Amino acid sequence: MSVPRFWREIPHKYRLLGSKCRSCGAVYHPRRPTCPRCGSRDMEEIVLSGRGRLLAYTVIRRPPSDLEEFRPYIVGLIELEEGVKVLGQIVDCGPEDLRPGLEVEATLRRIRAHGSSGVIEYGYKFRPALRWDKESSSQRPS
Ligand SMILES: [Zn+2]
User: Fold this and answer.
1) How far is the CA of 28 from the centre of ligand 1 (A)?
2) CA 87 to ligand 1 centroid distance, Å
């Protein structure tokens, strides 16, 4: 695998992208060619902030085999600032650090490695927002 090519691909491949309807303003993730709300096809691609609030979460103790290395892991439902809801793995903390309404932010992390080929997939996961650390040191995730 060509490392330089891999890094060149990162900027567009790994931005958290959504679609915004130019007619009614609705925002979607993943991207959509038409707006389910108003039916418009006038959609623009937007880069989502990756910041949002945790709505709900659960701990996965028996994952599929290719995610075994992360066991147990947390999956959360996050409402991004733009109003879209996304599912994602929550990292850098334990379930005891989480509560509904917690501020989280997207972070680029390894998703899985493909056996002997060594190809490693990256993608977005979420972690408690850094400013949460600064403002409330008594609650910092371990
Ligand atoms: Zn629309």
Assistant:
1) 10
2) 22
Mind listing the pLDDT tens digit of every residue in the chain (142 residues)?
A: 455 554 455 455 667 889 999 999 999 988 999 999 999 999 999 989 899 999 999 999 988 887 788 888 999 999 999 999 999 999 999 999 999 999 999 988 887 766 666 677 778 899 999 764 444 444 445 4
Say if CB 5 and CB 16 are below 8 A apart.
no
Evaluate if pTM is beyond 0.90: no
Distance (angstroms) between ligand 1 centre and the Cα of 26 equals: 6
Read off the tokens for 58: 């659960």
Cα 20 to middle of ligand 1, angstroms: 8
Q: Report the separation in Å between the CA atom of 122 and the middle of ligand 1, taken as the mean of its atom positions.
A: 31
89 Cα to the center of ligand 1, angstroms: 29
Q: Is 116 helix (H, G, I), strand (E, B) or coil?
A: helix
Helices (H), 1-142: 3-13, 130-135
The alpha-helical segments, DSSP class H, found in 23-93 are: none
CATH number, span 50-139: 2.40.50
